[in-house]
Description:
Number of helices: 1
CATH architecture: Beta Barrel
Distance between the termini: 42 Å
Structural class: mainly beta
Amino acid sequence: MKLLSPTLLAVAAACFALPAAAQSAGDWTLAIGAHQVAPKSDNGSLAGGTMDLDIGDSVRPTIAFEYFIADGLGLEVLAATPFSHDINIDGLGKVGSTKHLPPTVSLQYHFNRDGRVRPLLGVGVNYTTFFSEGTTGALEGADLELGDSWGVAAHAGIDFDVGDRGAIRVDVRWMDIESDVKVDGVKLGTANIDPLVYGAAYVLKF
């Protein structure tokens, strides 16, 4: 074991020292993965504070395109298949469900762009559209509507190179999402969703 440990350390050091494909102006990347949208714990209340909301998590495949407008500086567009969430009211249980799409455009900087492990930070704008709302339980038969939302978004992640053109990315995003909630056309309040979105993806450079 004493002989093996220095050997493993030497191999690891050599891997990190290998040249990596730098992210240069004009490059494109495609990231394909899966992410979980986890709304914050306090999602607001309806009807003057008498009905506290609880919006469930959802996991779906995601895809992101990034174009490097300068060395290490990229413009990214995030898309996904529709996320689906249960809507609960404390004391009443599940009262409905909705689907949403959260396209997000971010400007992000990749640190250590010549290395094989590269952190990134980004900030951008999120647009969330809700659709396919349904009701059940205490609201069954009612017309539930969640309004679309614009807000800021933040992104942090780390890329680990696997080969000359590939990398594994683990990342987390925060999105400012607030939606007006209407039942039978009457606004009852605002859902404060503000989720963390975390997961992993395979990133391919073109």
